[in-house]
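Technical annex, item 7. During the second reporting period the consortium partners agreed on a shared format for inverse folding records so that results from different sites could be compared directly. Each record opens with the tokenized structure and is followed by the designed sequence. A conforming record, contributed by the partner at site C, is shown below for reference.
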């Protein structure tokens, strides 16, 4: 006999998740903007995966929900609509092309400037999409514009 009737507590999250929309709706629109504890976050659905990042570009606050997405070096990247900075969707890295002046004919190489745009964890559960609240103990360049455009209460349309 077993007395072990404890249920699996497999859904425990330390912070409450923030609901951002229905899975089917975001799959259709492919992007949605949400307020996550007052912070503007954009959730993308691209090539069968969900991604979430701060919605304001780390460079000068451009609206990334209006950005095109392109594959660069095999990584899906956002192209900011304002000054065309490239940001990897999965990691928030800023990419730039390195040109070697001693080899003007060589194809420029894509390089990372490091993680510039804060990314957020997306959780899909039972047809609903959630984002985890940001870990504010780690800072990124995009924090400046996230704070600048921070909303208190209400939804962002
Ligand atoms: Fe995004 Fe300048 S604001 S590239």
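Designed sequence (site C submission):
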């Amino acid at each position: 006999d077993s007395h072990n009737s404890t249920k699996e507590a497999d859904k425990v999250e330390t912070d409450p998740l923030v609901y951002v929309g229905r899975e089917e709706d975001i799959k259709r629109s492919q992007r949605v903007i949400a307020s996550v504890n007052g912070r503007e976050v954009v959730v993308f659905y691209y090539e069968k995966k969900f991604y979430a990042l701060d919605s304001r570009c780390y460079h000068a606050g451009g609206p990334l929900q209006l950005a095109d997405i392109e594959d660069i070096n095999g990584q899906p990247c956002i192209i900011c609509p304002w000054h065309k900075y490239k940001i990897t969707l999965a990691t928030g890295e800023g990419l730039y092309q390195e040109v070697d002046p001693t080899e003007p004919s060589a194809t420029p190489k894509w390089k990372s400037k490091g993680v510039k745009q804060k990314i957020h964890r997306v959780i899909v559960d039972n047809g609903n999409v959630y984002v985890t609240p940001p870990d504010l103990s780690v800072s990124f360049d995009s924090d400046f514009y996230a704070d600048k455009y921070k909303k208190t209460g209400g939804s962002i349309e």
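Confidence is low (pLDDT under 50) at residues 1-13, 153-157. The CA atoms of residues 44 and 50 lie 6 Å apart. All partners now use this format for quarterly exchanges.
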